[in-house]
Amino acid sequence: MHLKINQNFKDNIDFIKSSIHNFKSTGKLFGDGKRNSIKLFELNGKTINIKSFKIPNLINKIAYKYFRKSKARRSFEYATILLEKGIGTPEPIAYLENYNWIGLKDSYYASEHLDCDLTYRELVEIPNFPDHENILRQFTQFSFQLHQSGVEFLDHSPGNTLIKKSFEGFYEFFLVDLNRMTFHDQMNFDQRMKNLSRLTPKKGMIATMSNEYSKLYTAKTESEIFEKMWFYTQEFQDKFSRKQRLKKKLKFWKS
Question: Where among 66, 95, 112 does a domain terminate?
Fold first, then answer.
């Protein structure tokens, strides 16, 4: 077993170890648990979130022991880096890895649990969501901050940014599901635009985001930003549609 704990929670190490050890029988289930299982626990009046990652296949068991960092470890380390850069994410608490003679057996990531008012997904699915355009523009500013900090969030998708209303007209943004990230000294234009391609298929939202991004990124015109952002969005949507069609075909043959 390997456990790494945030020094702010070193006095709670026994509680964290116990919660993970008894994960299956304790805690309150959060979400559907289809891939990874997430449970909530109460610690000194604070809710903490523990994610149990899906048990890896044989190849990944070996890879995560000898060649790659586990998803739990990456989540903890990336959250620490984000906070150092001033980027919102729930505070990391600990990660734990269990190994056997083959490789990684299972792994867990514990973090602060945040109750949010919405995610980016609501902006896509509810066009008349209150203060829609203002939130979208502030989200774009947040994404620009990520890029300026050299953070390429590879899972920058609709459900992975929690949004909290801090006070009237102003919002805070927090990244979750952190195990896939690349850090750069600088991000070029194409990397920036491609990083925004998974968020929405709606051209009007892309136009608003392009307009806001152009106010901050002056190396390109608003038109150039829109064209590139829309190009990568369409490319992603086409790829996603092909994958969905293939899945349907495979399900048909299996049935």
Answer: 112
The Cα-based distances of 38 to 86, 110, 223, 244, 249 in angstroms read 26, 10, 42, 26, 31
Give the pLDDT confidence of 51-88 residue by residue, as tens digits: 999 988 899 899 998 899 999 999 999 999 999 999 99
Q: Are 153 and 131 in contact (CB under 8 A)?
A: no
Q: How far is CA 26 from CA 19, 23, 39, 94, in A?
A: 7, 5, 8, 18
- Look at residue 251 and tell me if it is in a domain: no
What is the reported pTM? 0.91
Tell which residue, 112, 113, 14, 107, has the closest CA to residue 52.
107
Q: Is residue 229 part of a domain?
A: yes
**Look-up of token digits 């945040």:** 114
Provide the domain limits for residue 87.
2-112
